[in-house]
Write a structure and sequence with these properties.
about 400 residues, alpha+beta, 5-stranded antiparallel β-sheet, 5-stranded mixed β-sheet, 9 helices, about 50% helix, rod-shaped, binds adenosine-5'-diphosphate
Length: about 400
């Protein structure tokens, strides 16, 4: 290898240096570039610079790189592929500059090896492809989601349609029942009236046996009337025909007003009756309807409690509501029946409930009324130990 006439710093700098003339012939080259490509100095010096270039780069050199260099006097940061002696391609980043020396143009080039470029390009390409693939997947998922959303919306609309139909059917049923029961009440009232007239002996004397039968007839017609009244009540509530006159109502007074109505049954069964209501506790309610709910709860508590048991009415504030609890030490209600008892005509069979004693409508009506006043009705029970019905109303 010929010795270089370059300054040792340039000769061994960590990048290649090469100078060529306007005829393309190499004037000088540093040792770093020679050892990078595996050439001896005489392989390169005085040879055309194209000799150390890969085929593609030669074409690029002729069509772009060299013309640019002559035109602008410098070309920076251009990637060229050089060719090593063993035929390997070596990628370099090239900086070139033209200068004049003794009236002749010389071109100084610096080559910086870019070993990692190809690897980075490959990785970039892969990353790009992966990104494109996931973008495509995302797009497919988005389309699928949109499809599902459309289906969901369609189902919601269908469900809404059926709900509206069911609602309308329910209202139609309720108003039919309301009319029917109203129509039934008139003749039934007449039957009751005539039975009383017969009982009083107005049309003529009756025997004891006939009186006995008359009493049973009267009892049955009373029960029937009660049943019809309740059906009428429920269907009116369901058809939205009930007006609520909401006002501030004292819970203490409300309970006290019902007490006389249940006193006879309490006494008959010898039940203890406790009332624990803080003075001054008030609710927002329709006084008659709240009374109807409480009467139903207390009558049930008495009805479903064995003699000498006890019934208690408590009340307390709970946030913006008041909870009125009616509990008893009665037969209780099995867990699986707790939800059903609020359905119309549901009665839990037991030795204490005879069908003739109730209609199975009381709790359905009571809960509708409670909800109609912005409250609710709930139950908790321990079968064999007792039940607690909680009547919730907004506090005043
Ligand atoms: P009814 O009392 O006219 O049968 P309700 O709707 O008021 O109708 O009550 C429905 C059923 O719930 C009753 O038949 C009874 O089985 C059950 N029930 C209601 N209150 C109580 C209670 N305090 N203890 C036990 N069971 C009850």
């Amino acid at each position: 290898m010929l010795a270089s006439n370059l300054d040792p710093l340039l000769d061994h700098a960590p990048c290649g240096f090469l100078t060529f003339g306007s005829d393309g012939k190499v004037v000088s080259v540093n040792s770093t570039l020679l050892s990078l490509l595996g050439y001896d100095r005489h392989d390169v010096v005085d040879q055309h610079v194209e000799r150390i270039m890969a085929i593609g780069t030669r074409i690029f050199y002729q069509t772009h790189w060299f013309p640019l260099l002559t035109l602008h006097g410098h070309v920076e940061e251009v990637f060229l592929m050089l060719r090593a002696r063993d035929g390997e391609n070596v990628g370099v980043l090239t900086y070139a500059h033209r200068r004049e020396e003794e009236g002749k143009a010389l071109f100084d080039c610096v080559f910086v090896r870019v070993q990692e470029r190809a690897k980075y390009e490959h990785e970039l390409l892969q990353a790009k492809r992966a990104a494109e693939e996931s973008a495509a997947q995302l797009e497919a998922q988005a389309i699928e989601l949109e499809l599902q959303q459309n289906q969901l919306q369609q189902r919601t609309e269908e469900a809404e349609h059926f709900r509206r139909m069911a609602d309308e059917a329910n209202k139609a049923k309720s108003s039919f029942l309301a009319t029917m029961s109203h129509e039934l009440r008139t003749p039934l009232n007449a039957i009751g009236g005539y039975l009383q007239i017969l009982g009083l002996g107005i049309p003529g004397p009756i025997t004891d046996k006939q009186r006995d039968i008359l009493e049973r007839l009267e009892q049955s017609s009373r029960h029937l009337l009660h049943l019809i009244n309740e059906v009428l009540n429920l269907s009116r509530i369901e058809a939205g025909q009930v007006d609520y006159h909401i006002e501030a109502v004292s819970v203490e007074k409300l309970v006290a007003s019902i007490r006389p109505m249940i006193e006879p049954q309490l006494e008959k069964k010898q039940l203890a009756f406790d009332v624990n209501i803080p003075a001054g506790l008030t609710v927002q309610a329709d006084i008659e309807k709240a009374g109807q709910v409480l009467l139903n709860l207390m009558s049930n508590a008495i009805k479903f409690t064995e003699p000498r048991g006890s019934v208690e009415v408590r009340a307390r504030r709970d946030g913006s509501n008041v909870l009125i609890e009616v509990s008893d030490t009665g037969i209780g209600i099995a867990q699986e029946k707790l939800r059903d008892i609020f359905q119309p005509f549901v009665q839990v069979d037991s030795s204490l409930t005879r069908r003739a004693e109730g209609s199975g409508l009381g709790l359905a009506i009571s809960r509708d009324l409670a909800r109609g006043m912005g409250g609710d009705l709930q139950v908790a029970s321990d079968p064999g130990k007792g039940s607690t019905f909680t009547f919730q109303l907004p506090s005043a």
